[in-house]
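User: Show me sequence and structure for the first protein, then do the same for the second.

Assistant: Starting with the first protein.
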Amino acid sequence: MEDGKPVWAPHPADGFQLGTIVDIGADSLTIEPLKQKGKTFLAAVNQVFPAEEDVNKHVEDNCSLMYLNEATLLNNVRVRYSKDKIYTFVANILIAVNPYYDIPKLYSPETISKYRGRSLGTLPPHVYAIADKAYRDMKVLKMSQSIIVSGESGAGKTENTKFVLRYLTSSYGTGQDIDERIVEANPLLEAFGNAKTVRNNNSSRFGKFVEIHFNEKNAVVGGFVSHYLLEKSRICRQSKEERNYHIFYRLCAGAPEDIRQKFHLGSPDTFRLMENGCSTTSGLSTRDRSVSDKRFKLVVLFKASFQVV
C-alpha cells in the first residue's frame, strides 16, 4: 500500500470506511477519510485493506475482485444489495442478503426454467443455480450431494431452504403430489421450531437435515427429515420480549371448541410454559390462526408429547 492510494480502514459503525494513506508508520498507518477531509486517524497495518479503483463497481463473483479481502467483499455485497441483487458468488459458495421485501420475478416459474441445466456462473448468482449444480453433480457423479444453509437469525435460511426444495421438486419432480407434500411439510415443522425473539418475530430456533430422494431416473420420489434439533431451553423459559414456539399460541388462538375443552385451552398466560415471556397472540398472522383439520390432528399429537399443563 502506498501514500495517496484508496484503502478501506476500520470504522466503529460501518465496519469499514474509505480513505487514503497520508503517512506510514512502523506498526500503523495514518488515514484521511474521504468524507472528512483534513481529519486523520491511526489504524493498525493489518486492519487496513487496499480498495478497488471504482468502489461503486460490483461483480457477480467476489473472486473477480482485483483485491479480495474482507472490506472489498463486504462493499461488493453492499453495492449489489442496493441494486436489489441479493445473491453474490464466492466461487461455488453463495452469499444471500435478506431484502425484507419481495423482489418481483426473482423466484418465478420462468426463473426456475431459466436456471434448469445451466452451469454455475453462466447466469447471475441465485439459490436456484446452487440447487441445480447439486442435482447435476448427483446425476453425473452418482453420489449424494449436500447443500449447507447457514447464517445468523433473520438472514433468510428458512426461506432459501424452501426455494431449494421448490426448485428441485418443480424441475425434477415426478408430477405426483409427493412433490407438493415435501414443500408443504415446511409450515408444520416451522410451527414447532419457530418462535418470536427480540430480533425476529419468526425466528427458526431449530436445525433440520432434510433428505430429498431420487429414483433411478433422477426424479424426486420422496423426502425425509432425518434430524430435527430443537432449542429445548426455550420450551421451559423465555425472555420477557420473546415467546415459546408458535404451536402453543396457535393452539390457544385457533383450536376448535371441542379441542379447547378437551385440552383445557385458554389464554397463554394461564400456562407456566408461556406466562414468563411475551404471551400475546395478537402478533400471529391470519394464516397462523386458521389451522386446518388435517394439520390440527398432527398438532394435537405433538402437544401431548410436550405435556402442556
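Switching to the second protein now.
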Amino acid sequence: MTISNLSHGLSTRPPASLDTGLARRWRELVDRLSQVQRRYPDAALASSLAAEDMVLTHAIYGSGLDLEVFTLDTGRLHAETLGVLDAVDARYGRRVTVYRPDAAAVDAHVAAHGAHAFYESVELRKACCQIRKVEPLRRALAGRGAWITGQRRQQSTTRGELPLEEHDATFGLYKFNPLAEWSEEDVWAVIRTLDIPYNPLHDQGYPSIGCEPCTRAIRPGEDLRAGRWWWESSDSKECGLHAGNRVISVVARGD
C-alpha cells in the first residue's frame, strides 16, 4: 500500500511557497494553533487522518507546537487510513496517539444487533458510533481543557454555521475549528504545495472518510459528505463526535 506523499522528509519550504492568499491563511492557522496552546496547554487535535487533519498535523508538528494529535481506531477503518499513521511517523518522527473502543461493548452490540445493524436505522447506526467513536473520544478528552478539529463549513449542511471556536456542551470543554473558513481548494493547495502526506483514498473519490462499511466514493456534483452514511438524510450525518453541529444548523435554519 502506498501513502500519497511527495516527500518523505519534513518540508523545508517556507509558507512563502504558497500564493499570497494561502500564505496568509497558513500564517493565521499557525498563529491560531499557537494561541490554542497558550490558552490550553493540554489541548489536542482529534484527527480522523483526513485531508483537513493532515493539514493541521503538519501545522502542529512542522511548527514544533507541543500539542498532542490523537485518532480513533474504530476497528472498521480502511487499511489505507491506518497506513497514514505510519506515514506520519516516517515524515515527522512523532506518533499519533490511538484510542480504541471497549472490545466487550463492541462484542455485546454485535451479538445483540448483528455486524451490520447500522444499515437498519439511524438509531442503530448512532449506537454503533457511540461505542466505536464517542466513548473512546470521551476517554481521549477526559481532563483536557480544549480540543481541536478539522471541520469546515463547506463540508455539509450540518456544518454551515460552524464557528472558529466554541464551548462544547456535549463534552464539557472548549473546542477549536481553525479550518472552519477554509475551502476544499485551500486544503488541497496547501497539501500539494507543502507535500503533506494524505490518505490515498482521497484520490479515489473519497473526500470524507470514516469506517469502511459506512463510506463510499461520491459521484460528480454530490455533497462532500454524501459518501458518509449515504443511506441516511443529509441533515442527520453526524456521528455524535460533533453533536452540537446539528443544533446550530437547526437554529440557523429556524426549524
